[in-house]
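so my prof wants the structure for this chain in the C-alpha cells format not the other one, which i didnt know existed until like an hour ago. anyway here's the sequence
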Amino acid sequence: MSAIKLALIQMRSGTDPERNLDDAEALIREAAANGATFVLTPETTTLVQKDAERLFEQIHSPDVEPAIVRFADLADSLGIDLLIGSMALKGGATSDDGRDRAVNRSHLFGPDGALKARYDKIHMFDVALGGGETYSESTNYAPGDRAVLTEAAGGQLGLTICYDVRFAALYRRLAQAGAQMISVPSAFTRPTGRAHWETLLRARAIETGSFILAPAQGGKHEDGRKTWGHSMVIGPWGEVIAHLDHDEPGVLHAEIDLDEVASARSRIPSLRNDREFTGP
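here's what i got, hopefully its the right format
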C-alpha cells in the first residue's frame, strides 16, 4: 500500500497579500496538525486582484517574493510536501504590444523546504461568459510552455492550474510520463464551476487513471470576483473520494492509495492503446 495523507486548502484570498499569507499559513498548519503530509493550496493563493495596475504594484519577481521564503520555511518546519497552487509573479514575457506581463506559477516545496518544482500555467482563460463577465488572462499573464512532472509525498505528481483542466492532451501527456496524481489548483468562476467543475475533474481522472487533487478558491472576493469553491479529490476510477460541498474557507482531508493507479490502468489500458490516424 502506498498511502498518502493529504489535505486541500480552500481559500477566499483577497487584495492584501500579507493577510492572504497569514490565512494560508493558518490553514496549512491546521492541516499538518491533523496528520496531512502533503498539503495543496488553490490558484492565486497570495492575491486575488483583477485591477491590473494594482496587481503589478503588489507582486514581485521570484528572487524577492517574500511568500516563497515563507512557504519554504513553513514546509520545512512542518516536515510536509507543500504545493502552493499559484502565485502571480513579475517576469513574464512581454506582450506583442510591449506590455509587461506576470506569470501564474505553482511552487512545490519538499519537507526540507527545498523547491522541488515550479510550473507556469499554460492555458490562458480568455473568455466572455455573458452578462458582462469577461476574462482576458493573456493581457496580464504570459503563458507557460512546459509540462512538469515531479515527485511529491513518494508519488509522481503532474502540475496543472485551473483552465488547464479543459485541455485533455496535457493530462494524457503527464499520465503517460508517469503521473499518478495531478494537481488542479483553481479559482473557477461560479457559472463555469456550477456547470463543469466536477464533470471535468472526473473526466480527467477517468481518462488518465490518476488521482486528481483540486483545491479551490471560493466565495465573493474583495475585488468583486465570485468563485465556486467545492474543492475535490477524485480517484483514478473517477469516483469522488472527498469534497467540500460549499465555498467557505477550510481544509479537506483525504487518504489515497497510489496502488489504485496501477489497478485502474490495468483494467482500462487506454494510455497504452493510442493509435496514429489521419484526417480530418
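also thought this was worth mentioning. The chain is about 30% helix and 30% strand.
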